[in-house]
Amino acid sequence: MGHAPIDATVQNLLQAREQFVRFLIPRMRSREAAEDLVQASLLKVLQSQARPRDSESSVAWFYQLLRNALVDHIRAHHAEARALERHGGEEELVDDPELERVACACIQALLPTLKETEAEVLQAVDLGGETPGAFAARKGVTANAMTVRLHRARKSLREKVERTCRTCAAHGCLDCRCGKAAAGS
């Protein structure tokens, strides 16, 4: 299977890649974060049919895309910081290995019963520790789209836990005996 030739717009963008990274570094305070944002934006261009009218204006066009992506990144970062601030006390519960083992046993049993995309995002973000932004970039979607997917996946899982675990779900799964029920749902 052959690859499609790279069009002039993409070629121009690839040649200016380092220029884009240098533009973002002071705004993101990290070369790695700047490279990730440029990479995710380039991937979006490759996956999209959207192109400027002529390839010569492609660099200016891409700078505008980068500015928009940067604004989205900053908004997501601020929203994440606010959420962590609001739910700061909940972090302590996750550090309890026994509670984490019990909760993960229920969740692991229910993951295969979810849609594949829901299970994948929960596995990567909630169980694997990957940030939603990094997972979004890896999947080639916006951070906002990934936040929506993650919310929907968590809602689906919560509904499954409530249907399957019943009493355990209402009382915190501290003495969970629903593993057999989870496997059968």
Question: What is the residue-averaged pLDDT?
Answer: 77
Number of helices: 11
Q: CATH fold name of the largest domain, please? A: Arc Repressor Mutant, subunit A
The CATH class designation of the largest domain is Mainly Alpha
Number of domains: 2
Structural class: mainly alpha
Give me the strand/helix succession: HHHHHHHHHHH
Going by CATH, the architecture of the largest domain would be: Orthogonal Bundle
N-C termini distance: 41 Å
Beta-strand portion reads under 5%
Low-confidence stretches: 89-94, 180-185
| Biggest pleated sheet | none
The amount of helix comes to over 70%
| Strand segment count | 0
Q: How big is the Rg?
A: 21 Å
Q: Name the shape in a single word.
A: elongated
Overall description:
It is a single chain. Residues 89-94 and 180-185 have low confidence and may be disordered. The chain has 185 residues and is mainly alpha-helical. The protein is built from eleven helices and no strands. It has helices spanning 8-15, 17-28, 31-47, 58-86, 91-94, 97-110, 116-127, 132-139, 143-165, 167-171, 179-184. The chain is elongated, with a radius of gyration of 21 Å. Helices cover 75% and strands 0% of the residues. It has two domains: 8-88, no CATH class; 96-184, Orthogonal Bundle (Arc Repressor Mutant, subunit A), CATH 1.10.10. Helix 2 (17-28) packs across helix 3 (31-47), helix 7 crosses helix 9 and helix 8 crosses helix 9.
